[in-house]
Amino acid sequence: MSTMTTTATTFVVRNQLGQYLTRKGEWVSGKDTAELYHQRHYDQALNQLIEMNAKDIDLRGRVCEVGLSEKLRPVLEELGPDPQQPELLPEANSGAPAAQQNNQTRGQPGTENQASSDDGKKADSGKEVAA
């Protein structure tokens, strides 16, 4: 008989920021693996991801296979950003200034309409000159 050594694995759910889903449905960095949601089977973890996505349509999550410790807790190779420290989230660093710039231009009444109406006037005046 040959003895096979199989490494026990489990499946966890991660969001687009790299955070892990807890049993309570919260997103955390994964420092405390005891509270993480994990399933032995991929399809069960995928079902949980689909349920979470039904509640939050902006969620872009994935199911990841990780090892299990002797205490049957997930063994994570990398931690996600800590939601208790929002400055560590990618959106807080890079997304905020761009979003503010977009809101400033969008917030000005008629800026998009003025640009397209000016183009239309130039095109109309150009046609009148050519005719």
Please render the helix and strand layout as text.
Layout: E1 9-14, E2 20-21, E3 27-28, E4 38-39, H1 42-55, E5 62-68, E6 74-75, H2 90-107, H3 111-130
Which terms summarize this structure?
single chain; alpha+beta; two-stranded antiparallel ribbon
Our count of domains comes out at 2
Terminus-to-terminus distance? 94 Å
Q: What's the shape? A: globular
Query: Order of strands in the sheet with the most strands?
Result: 4-1-5-6
The topology string of helices and strands comes to EEEEHEEHH
Average pLDDT for all residues: 74
Our count of helices gives: 3
Radius of gyration: 25 Å
Structural class from helices and strands? Answer: alpha+beta
Q: Find the count of extended strands (DSSP E, 2+ residues).
A: 6
Please characterize this protein's 3D structure.
This protein has about 130 residues and is α+β, with helices and mostly antiparallel strands. Helices cover about 40% and strands about 15% of the residues. The protein has three helices and six strands; from the N terminus they run ββββαββαα. It has helices at about 40-55, 90-105, 110-130; strands spanning about 10-15, 20, 25-30, 40, 60-70, 75. Strand 2 and strand 3 (about 25-30) form a beta hairpin.
What's a concise summary of this model?
The protein is an alpha+beta fold. The chain has three helices and six strands; from the N terminus they run E-E-E-E-H-E-E-H-H.
